[in-house]
Amino acid sequence: MIPYIVVDDDGNILRSCCCAVADLKKQGGPGEYIITDMGEVDDVAQKVIWDAYDDAGNLINPRLEQRTAEDIASRQPPPVDPLDRGAGISNRQWQALQGRVAKLEAR
Questions:
Q1: Cβ 14 vs Cβ 8: under 8 Å
Q2: Which residues of 61-81 are buried (b: 16+ CB within 10 A; e: fewer)?
Q3: Are 17 and 3 in contact (CB under 8 A)?
Q4: Residue 75: pLDDT band by 50, 70, 90 thresholds?
Q5: Could you count the other beta carbons within 10 Å of the beta carbon of residue 104?
Q6: Could you give the angle at the alpha carbon of 24 between the alpha carbons of 23 and 28, nearest 5°?
Q7: Distance (Å, rounded) from C-alpha 103 to C-alpha 82?
Q8: In sequence order, which residues have a C-beta less than 8 Å from that of residue 29 and are 6 or more positions away?
Q9: Where residue 102 falls among pLDDT bands split at 50, 70, 90?
């Protein structure tokens, strides 16, 4: 098993895992690059930078760089208003609620 990370064109770390050497090339899709031997990575606080591309389209001299606090904050999803969240009830509970409402409206 070999550890790897997959990054996009902007250097964002999309995923990290381990796989067999024979399956390594299958881990990246279009516009994604597979990098091995990067050690521990933090996809929130770090990104990958590189110098250039070689003739085969591989990254030359990839390395980790810490993101700025502003960059990390800009990548966070917007906060969800608790009043906009769903109630988190089951289908059975929803059906029972609709039945009660129908009974109240029939009065």
A1: yes
A2: ebebeebeeeeeeeeeeeeee
A3: yes
A4: confident
A5: 8
A6: 110
A7: 29
A8: none
A9: very high
2 token code pair: 């070999």
Burial of 94 (0-12, 13-18, 19+ CB in 10 A): exposed
Angle at 70 between CA 65 and CA 73, to 5 degrees: 100
C-alpha neighbours within 13 Å on the C-beta side of residue 51: 3
CB neighbours of residue 48 within 10 Å: 21
Mean pLDDT of the chain: 90
DSSP structure class, residue 3: E
Vertex 53, ends 32 and 57: CA angle to 5°? 55
pTM given for the model: 0.68
- Which amino acid is residue 67, in one-letter code? R
In DSSP terms, which residues pair with 53 in a beta bridge? 59
Q: Which amino acid is at 61?
A: N
